[in-house]
Amino acid sequence: MGVLVAHALVCPANNAVPLHVLNPREEPVIVPKGTRIATLEPLERETPDDVIQVHAVSATGNKSLSSSEEGVLWEMVSTVVSGVTESQKEQLFFMFSNYSDVFCLHPNDMGHTTEVKHHIDTARLKIKDENLIPSFDPDVSLECSFPTTTGAGVCVTALLDFLGRAHNNFLTECKMKEQGEHRPRQPGSGHESHAGGGGSGQGGSRRCGGGGTGANTGADGGAGAGRGAPAASAAGGGQPAAAAMAVGAALLLLLVAVGAALLLLLLLVVGAALLLLLLVVGAVLQLLLLLLVAVGAGGALLLLVVGAALLLLVVGAALLLLLLLLVVGAAMLLLLVAVGAARLLLLVAVGAALLLLLVAVGAALLQLLLVVGAVLQLLLLLLVAVGAALLLLLVAVGAALLLLLVAVGAALLLLLLMVGAALLLLAADGRGQHCI
Predict the structure, then answer these.
(1) pTM, entire model
(2) CA quadruple 11, 12, 16, 19: dihedral positive or negative?
(3) SS3 state at 16
(4) At 4, phi and psi to the nearest 5?
(5) CA proximity to 397, closest of 296, 274, 313, 276
(6) Cα gap 212→217, rounded to integer Å
(7) 421 has pLDDT over 80
């Protein structure tokens, strides 16, 4: 088949024999089921204590346990917690029997090995030799100053952790001393207790009247009590400063309120004036627009009247000319009967041609007047559109000015509030300095 099977010393159990098979080729090799790849033989040695017997593998597929193996399983079952019934023990033994291949039932089974070691990371910091910082000088890299869990910042993280724990212990001892409790000192904690006494004394001096708090430990406690007495006297003289600060705050709030009221009144007056001005300008523009519309309508009516009059004049002239021609023709017909019908027909043709010419001229003039009226209507619509655009522009400009005034007023109001807050902070700072 092209595969290699390594020699191995095995202990068959549960119809399974572990083997090491090597495929030296590059392409995969398929081993059909039931193929014989090795021979299992018992191994016997001359020394009776070292004899290892390998028995043939049963082909029945059932899990049969020897009496010694069952004894081992029953011993395991008997070590369970008391209070378990016999039926439950039998069920436990049955489960152990089904999974007997995971237990060591005789000395030849593999137990445990010490060749493989397992390490569990407890998330504690691991400071390597290359990450140690001998001293902080300009030559040290900047990344050593930032706390990290790995790399160059491990030392800074450890230092911060130590300082945090020391600070928490110090605060705990101070709190216990204030409450009249005494925490038993641990070996090597004398430095922390001394620092705690000094901290209590300073804390008493900062309360303006609690000078007796720092008198719990040694020289530092006495110093704290000594600093507490001036603070107590300063607390008594701080009432005028508080009254002055309250009066100043009241005056500042009054000034802010008056300024805000005046600013709002000014904004309202200016905004109303601008709005009225925009309304007046809009009304004037509307009147001008109406005047333009009236002028346009009057011009169109005038043109129509003039056109109708000219048309009537032309038609009347044509009729009069026709009558004149008829009269002249009749006269000439009466006078020149002898001349003949040819002259009469010529005169009639000339009269008809002139009549048609006059009618065509009248129709052309009427068309021209209609075109001029349409042009005037277009000009009128253009004037209406320009007036509407101007009105919208004025309204937009007025709204923008109003918003600008409101924004300026809000900015001034915020400036006044910030100035008031700054004055209050300055007054509070002055009071705090006077108290200290």
Answers:
(1) 0.26
(2) positive
(3) strand
(4) -115, 135
(5) 274
(6) 12
(7) yes
- Side-chain-facing half-sphere of 419: CA atoms under 13 Å: 13
Residue matched to tokens 């109303």: 272
- What spatial distance separates the first Cα and last Cα of the chain, rounded to whole Å? 97
> Residue 389: CA atoms inside 13 Å, Cβ hemisphere, count?
6
Q: For 179-203, how does the pLDDT look when each residue is reduced to its tens digit (9 = 90+)? A: 775 444 444 444 433 333 333 333 3
Gyration radius (Cα) of the chain, Å: 60
Coil, helix or strand for 280?
A: helix
* Residue 406: φ, ψ to 5°: -65, -40
244 Cβ neighbours under 8 A, 6+ residues apart? 427
User: What pLDDT digit, counting tens, does each position of 38-62 carry?
Assistant: 888 887 655 555 555 544 444 333 4
Question: Over 90: is that where the pLDDT of 375 sits?
Answer: yes
Question: What is the C-alpha to C-alpha distance for residues 127 and 124, in angstroms, rounded to an integer?
Answer: 10
Contacts by residues 304-307 (CB-CB < 8 Å, ≥ 24 positions apart): 304/369, 304/373, 306/369, 307/365, 307/366, 307/369, 307/370
- The closest alpha carbon to 17, from 52, 64, 58, 71, belongs to 58
Write the burial class of residue 76 (CB in 10 Å: 0-12 exposed, 13-18 middle, 19+ buried). middle
In percent, the amount of the chain with pLDDT more than 90 equals: 17
Q: Which residues of 15-40 are buried (b: 16+ CB within 10 A; e: fewer)?
A: eeeeeeeeeeeeeeeeeeeeeeeeee
Give the residue-averaged pLDDT of 301-306: 90
Output DSSP code: residue 41: -
Closest CA to 192 of 178, 205, 173: 173
